[in-house]
UniProtKB/TrEMBL annotation:
Protein name, UniProt field: histidine kinase
Catalysed reactions, semicolon-separated: ATP + protein L-histidine = ADP + protein N-phospho-L-histidine
Leader peptide range in chain numbering: none
Species this chain originates from: Cyclobacterium amurskyense
Keywords: Coiled coil, Kinase, Membrane, Phosphoprotein, TPR repeat, Transferase, Transmembrane, Transmembrane helix, Two-component regulatory system
CDD domains, A to Z: HisKA (cd00082)
Amino acid sequence: MTALLNLKFFFTTSVAFSVVFATHSIFAQTETLRSQIDQIQAIENYENFTPNFEYIDQLNRLGERYYNINPDSTFLLAMKSLKASEQIGYAIGKVDAYRNIGAYHNVKGEYDQAMNYFEEGLSIAEKNQYWLGLANIYNSIGLNNYERGNYSDAVIYYLKALGIKEEHLSKLEQSKTLNNLGLVFMDFGDLDKALDYHSRALKIREEFKDNTGIASSRINIALINKEKGDLDEAKKQFNAALKLGLRINNRQLISVSYFNIAEILLIKEEYNEALAYFEKALLIDKERGDEVGIGYDLLGIGEAQMNLKRLRQAKENIQKSLTIFVESDIKSNINKSHLLLSQVYEMENNNTQALYHFKLHKAYQDSIVNLETEKLIQEISEKYEFDRKEAEFLQIQIEKELLNDKRMEKNFRIGVTIILVILLIAFILAIRSIKSQIKAKAFVTRQKNELEILNKKLLQQKNENEQITNQLFLVNETKDKLFSIVGHDLKSPINSLKGLMQYVMDEKLSQNEFLTVAKQLRNEVEQVHFTLINLLNWAKGQMKGIVTDPVAISIHKIVEENIDLNEPISESKKIEIIDELEENTICFADKDQINLIIRNIMNNALKFTNKGGKIVISSKRHGYDFWEISIKDNGIGMSKEALNNLFSKELGGKPQYGTEGEKGTGLGLKLTKDFISKNGGEVKVYSEKGVGTNFTFTLPSAYI
């Protein structure tokens, strides 16, 4: 199990260390990269383009994002940024460009070339006190030493970066370096110190709700607990990382969590559960195209199946994993694959194959032992060197702190002396100027009062001017709308009326023909008259405001008059109008306005009801103080959208046509709503497409 643990550990390590070179998560989506590329290209396409600070920063940030995806792009973008920075003398741009070029050489394994660029950037960052750039380069140099195996030097540079971040930068920046320090001490085998650094990083990341960072820290803490043998705590941390991975849909985090939970279950001999988690990890790694990850998953599946006595399946999966590990030259897992195959063949009583794979296992094991021995010797040497350098580093820090304390004490004494002198001078000057200040204050107060009076007059005049301007604008707008409606909505029926009258004069008509034409003439005249009344009422309300003259009125009487008035239309469309009003429906309202309300609603109902339809007019008490009047039809109804916009249509807008092409101005409903409101009532409309419409409105009762 150790071999598997180690590789998954290094897998996680590579994820965590890459944060050194990026200000964003390594799991950034392609769309974000595309957006950043588009922004840069848009800047470059400007006419007379010259590079500026924003453009160079965009290049450097994009280069950082590409570090874990396509290092060659990082190099090209960094060179472009360096050239532009030198052109305009942008020091910060140079520092970030040198760091990205060094990062490119790091990933290529060209460590000496990387250091040359890091040192160039370091000198510029120190000179310009560019703290973030300085800390990032120290981190990069730390990673350079870490990858060379110089762990003690790596720690020294990480501590330098951490010191700068603690003094000048945010806690979130500090968490990245704390994480890197934890990983180095995990390599040292100093698990307690590693756990301390990772726990500090986790606390900061939780404070800033950095989900990807939280998951990375939890995985590292879980690996430490796993190495210590605290499997329950390790499983708890892996489950927490898995939950985060699922929430942010980070497939890499999910795969690592599934795999490590399966490893723990395997150690605890819970083979069925382990197998299920290995298979989940395999599905994700196949989806991601991670061949090495697939190799690990297959090896874990094979081991679980072997313990469950599913020997044929186990042998097949272990053999597949062996093929992947041979291609990738991962010796530790080639060794384990041969060991598991020898055990499977032994369980099948195939001693020849069991011996063959066992010998290969021993050969690889001896090779690994030799490498681990060399590494252990190197680590002991590095640990000794690190302890020495750490002591030197701490001593230097103590000396710096003592020197700073002395400087602060000296500066404090000088500062106190200067303050006392300044206070004495200020006191003398204050005494001398007290009389002149009193005189000046009186003069200023007088001027201030005069200015306030003048400002109030100017403000009042301004408000009056604004009111006049607004009134003129509204009057002009009302005039334009009125002319528009007169031009469009009265022109058509008047032309029709003119044509009918000309026809009567030109043609010799029988009595029946004349009665038919006369009936049509009456309808046209009535429609023009009705439209004109609406227009005049609306225009009057717009220009003078709606004035109500409430009296006790019989709604029943007004309804009967409007039924008689609309009889030609109802008879021509064979629409039955039913009066179900209670006889004592007496309201306290303006008679003319209520007459116009009922006429408009009834006109609408007739317009949008098909031949043979029905309109019912009824009333009922609404509380003790109001009557509720309802005019309900079984016509074509309205959609929800039309119902929502019923009272908000623009005057003079697109007209709505009735079931037989009847057209209206749209004023009727506006007047209806305004008049009902002015008379102390409320209006509600219920409608369903193809079922009909019900207009209900309330009016104050005349007798309470």
